[in-house]
Specification:
Blueprint (H helix, E strand, L loop, with lengths): L11 E3 L4 H6 L5 E6 L4 H16 L5 E6 L4 H6 L7 E6 L2 E7 L4 H12 L1
Parallel strand pairs: 1-3, 2-3
Antiparallel strand pairs: 2-4, 4-5
GO cellular component, one term: cytosol
Organism: Prauserella muralis
Keywords: Disulfide bond, Electron transport, Redox-active center, Transport
Length: 115
């Protein structure tokens, strides 16, 4: 069994306090995963997002924000269900994806929004 590559891109956590710097002020598009510890589908999609972060390193940033710990950002972006993925481009949300989905479908939706 091979060990995971710890030098590859990872899904970094952001908070209400770091959201502007870590998401809105980035040059690259940023996919933000609004999640919670109690949310089973959030745990299902987490490894998929980690794979995407590694595969799209250099062209897409992937971040996660705990909706329970960061209620301001959760409210400000109208997140009503978890997981909700928001794709930011130029500091603004351009696509909302609600719920867990297979990697291929998620990549197709991201590519369509970024295309």
């Amino acid at each position: 069994m091979t060990q995971p590559d710890t030098t590859a891109a990872e899904v970094l956590a952001v908070t209400d306090e770091t959201f502007a710097r870590d998401v809105r002020e980035q040059d690259l598009p940023v996919l933000v995963d609004f999640w919670a510890q109690w949310c089973p589908p959030c745990h299902v999609i987490a490894p998929v997002l980690a794979e995407i972060a590694r595969e799209r390193e250099g062209s897409l940033l992937v971040r996660k924000i705990n909706a329970d710990d960061s209620p301001v950002s959760t409210r400000d972006y109208g997140v009503m269900s978890l997981p909700t993925l928001l794709l930011f481009r130029g500091g603004e949300p351009v696509r909302s994806i609600v719920g867990s989905r297979p990697k291929a479908r998620l990549l197709a939706e991201l590519d369509a929004a970024l295309g």
